[in-house]
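Suppose you are handed only two things: the residues of a chain and a line of SMILES describing guanosine-5'-diphosphate-alpha-D-mannose. What would the bound structure be? This form records exactly that question and the answer produced for it, so the two can be stored side by side and reused later without any lookup.

QUESTION INPUTS
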Amino acid sequence: MPSAEHVVDGIPDLTAVIPAGGSGTRLWPLSRAGSPKFLHDLTGSGRTLLQATVDRLRPLVGDRVMVVTGRRHADAVRAQVPELRDLLVEPSARDSMPAIGLAAAVLERRDPQAVLASFAADHVIGDLDVFHDRVGQAVRAAREGWLVTLGISPTHPATGFGYIRVGPRLQTADSPDSHHVRAFVEKPDAERARTYLESGDYLWNAGMFVVRATVLLELLDQQHPRMVEVLREIAAAPARLEELWGTLTAVAIDHAVAEPAAAAGRVAVVKAPFDWDDVGDFASLADLLEDSADDQGLRVLGDPDKVVNVGSTGVVVARSGRTVVTLGLDDVVVVDTADALLVTTRERAQEVRNVVALLHGTGREELT
Ligand SMILES: Nc1nc2c(ncn2[C@@H]2O[C@H](COP(=O)(O)OP(=O)(O)O[C@H]3O[C@H](CO)[C@@H](O)[C@H](O)[C@@H]3O)[C@@H](O)[C@H]2O)c(=O)[nH]1
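ANSWER OUTPUT
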C-alpha cells in the first residue's frame, strides 16, 4: 500500500533526477549515438524508456523531475517530455557524476533540505507499488543523512552490473528494508560474480541513488573538491556552464562517491524486490518481450503485421516498414531499420557493440 505521502504531489522534498547519457551500442542499429536507447520504446507500450521512467516517478515527485542530458539529445527529450520542469543540458559527456552532481548543486540552491533520487533513463521496472514503497523508504533514510541505493536480488552471475555487499539492518529510519552497505564492487569477472551470487550477501547495483543534495556534494567534496566548487559555480551562474563544464573530470558516481562513501560507512541499501532490467542487449530485449512471443517462440517489436514467421524463435525488431520473413532459424535476432539491418543470434548479442566499433574503424560513422 503506498503511504499517504505518495498521493497528489508525491513526497514534497523529493526531486527525481534522470541522467540520460550513453548511446547503448549493444542495441545497434536501433539505438544510435544521435538516438540512444532511452529515446526508444523497447517494450511495445507506446512509451519510450525515458517517458516510462518519468511516468513511474510521477506519483512520487509530481512534476519535480530534472533530466540531465547532452546537447545533441536535448530537443528530443523536450519533444518526448514536453511538460518537463527542468532540463539541464551538458556541453559534453562527463559521465554520471558531473551530471548528477550538477542536479544536486541546482537543487541545493533551491532548498538546502532537498532530497534527490537518481534513476537511469533507460531501465524497465515492474511492480510499481513495490518500487514506490522502496523509494519512499530510501527517502526516509536519506533524510537522516545516508547515501541510499536500491539493491536488486541477483538472478544470475551477471558481469555487466556492479554488486553491493550488504551489511546488517539499519537501526534507524522508518525504513525496514534498509541495510548498511559494506562495499560496492563494479562489474566483477564471471568467477567472482558466481561467488557473489552463491554467497547471498550481494545485491545488484541498479544505478539508483537517493540522497540529500547537500550530502551528495559533501561526499563528493571528500574526493573531488574542485568538482564541487565548479558545480556550485555553475548552479549560481548558469551562463558560466560552457566555460566551466570542460574542466570537470569525467567519472562515474559509483567511483566518485558510492565506493568511498561505503568504505566510510555512509551508505545504506534498500532491498528492492521488484522486476528490473537494464535492457542491455537484444538477448535481454527478447527476455523482456517473452510474454508477447508467438506460438512458435518469436517475439516482435514493431508492427506484427510486417513479420511473417515460419518456425523461428528469437526476436525481430521491425522498424523499416518492410516485411521481414524468418524461416527455420533458432534464437535469431533481426533488427531491420531504414538504413541498416542486423542479423545475429541471441548468444552473440553482447558482441553487437564490436560491430559499432568496426563501423567507426571503417569510416561509416554515419551509421552509428
Ligand atoms: N547526462 C549524462 N548521463 C550519463 C553520462 N554517462 C552516463 N550517464 C548515465 O548514468 C547512468 C549510468 O551510466 P552507464 O554508463 O549506463 O553505467 P553502467 O556502465 O551501465 O553501470 C552503472 O549502471 C549499472 C546498472 O545499469 C550498475 O550495475 C553499475 O554498477 C553502474 O552503476 C545512466 O543513466 C547513463 O545514462 C553522461 O555523460 N551524461
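WHAT STANDS OUT: The CA atoms of residues 156 and 197 lie 7 Å apart. Residues 1-7 have pLDDT under 50 and may be disordered.
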